Amino acid sequence: MAFGLPTTSLAAQSDDIRVFGIRLVGLTAASARKLALTLALVAVVVLIRLALRALLRGGQSEDHAARWRFWVRQGLALLTAAVLVLGAVSIWFETPQQLTGVLGLVAAGVAIALQRVITAFAAYLIILRGRVFTVGDRIVMAGVRGDVIALGFMQTTVMEMGQPPPAQSDPPAQWVNARQYTGRIVRVTNDKIFDSPVYNYTREFPYLWDEIQVPISYGADRARAEQILLESTRRHTQRIEELGAPARVELLRRYALKESIDLEPRVYWRLTDNWLELTVRFIADETGVRGLKDRISRDILAAFDEAGLGFASTTYEIVGLPPVRFVKDGSSADRA
Question: How far apart are CA 37 and CA 84, in angstroms?
Fold first, then answer.
């Protein structure tokens, strides 16, 4: 009996592939060649993509080039996917009849198993085409607030930011009481644009209106208090007003908005049971609002101290006490 090393042989009569004498069902020399071509195609396309991405990383690093590189990467990813799909179809399907039958089966399976994936990819195309948002925009989507730092076929990556106290009750829970980064990176599937509104802080009008409330007593010098609020606010928002004027004109041109959009600071009065509430409304950049309000608040506080004005607060006044009786040990209550 002769013994030899196991070999892989091709059966000439059936073109089947046998390993250790076992016939591999469905694997023929022709399909093996197609598989090898497919793997080679994938390897070549991946290498070309990696080389192009390396060239992009070696380019300029200025902020104005960051978005350009992002869109180039997005186009490169789409081109890579298209080349792989077309190449695989060309290798594996030689006649239109074969392709039609396979496409029917694939479509049926996709319709059942990949509904959310298809929806997320369709949302990705809508985000790009519909100008919903892009990398660098500050948005709120599906309850997530923050800056878009990456946009993929299926998910949007957001650097989360906190929220001011009036919105602290909204989910998810936050520990940063301002629109500043929390440090968490959140990924949201793109299909959420179909289920919830998308709030964009920066797309068409990269400015926000914000407010500071100051309570004063009814007996205080109200005119002086209002003057202090306006002067302190104008001191820190004048540059923002000048930069926001062209954006305001463009916003009015593109949308049916009222002409009453005012960039100048304004003080509003509100009567309450305890004090007069003065609210100063002003324009601010989409970022750095907390620092701006901090500077304005410091100026207001210093000016109030200089003018002898105080802030009103809730107080309680005790106007009377019930009779108090003291009883000494060993003596009667009447003698006490």
Answer: 12
